[in-house]
Amino acid sequence: MSGFNENLPNTGNSAAPRAASSIGEDVIAAGASVGVDVEKLRNKYLSQKLVNNLTVGGSEDEIKLKQQLQDAQRMRNLEARSNGEIPEVDEFPKKIETKKRLDNLIICSRCGGQGIVKQNYNFQIRESNCVECEGEGILYKGLNGVLLKPSEGESLSLIHTHNLSLIH
Fold first, then answer.
1. C-alpha count within 13 angstroms, C-beta hemisphere, residue 74
2. DSSP readout, 7-54?
3. How high is the pLDDT of residue 116?
4. Is 80 helix (H, G, I), strand (E, B) or coil?
5. For residue 120, what pLDDT is reported?
6. For the chain, what is the mean pLDDT?
7. In a 3-state reduction of DSSP, which class is residue 60?
8. What is the per-residue pLDDT across 49-65, written as a single tens digit (0 to 9) for each?
9. CB atoms within 10 A of CB 26
10. Cβ atoms within 10 Å, residue 147
11. Using CA atoms, how far apart are residues 112 and 147, in angstroms rounded to an integer?
């Protein structure tokens, strides 16, 4: 019976004269037995492995240090762009106005803001619109703290006019 190596084409690669650098002798011998130059493959793919401009052989500490240096440089760039200035006073009332509007919105506790309630009926799960928020998922806080549904339009318009009068 003939050996496995006799049936392969001769590529001129032999494992005996080559010294194993970081690859074991058995890996080089196995590659040579099937006609593959393992050293060339290793060098080819080693040059493509870069992580954050560091070779894969770099330790975790080197990678963390590189990331910290990049973060510090990014922060210096951001500080240089802002010149350490405080935002103008006109920006703050806009934020307060937005906050007051959002304070009057309450997420419906029955449906969790989904607008849909699931009910078990025998072996079925039925989905229906939430009756608390009428399928909207949110409720509005009234003037006296009472929660209003979206369909209560007159009360809702009073809330909006009252909020606008507070802001201006």
1. 6
2. GS---S--SSSSPPSSS-HHHHHHHHHTT--HHHHHHHHHTT-EETTE
3. 92
4. helix
5. 92
6. 70
7. helix
8. 554 455 555 677 777 78
9. 10
10. 15
11. 15
Measured between alpha carbons, how far is 163 from 103 in angstroms, rounded to an integer? 10
Structure tokens at 2: 């003939």
> What tokens appear for 97 in the block?
């106005």
Distance CA(96)–CA(167), nearest Å, equals 9
The pLDDT confidence band at residue 125, using thresholds 50, 70 and 90, is: very high
Token duo for residue 92? 């703050």
Cα–Cα distance list, 71 to 51, 58, 76, 93 (Å): 16, 19, 9, 33
What tokens appear for 50 in the block? 């870069």
The label of the residue with tokens 């010149």 reads 83
Helix (H) or strand (E) holding 55: strand 54-55
> Would you say residue 117 has pLDDT above 90?
yes
C-alpha–C-alpha distance, residues 149 and 139, integer Å? 6
E-only strand ranges, 65-151: 105-107, 116-121, 124-129, 138-141, 147-148
Q: How far is 19 from 99, CA to CA, in rounded Å?
A: 72
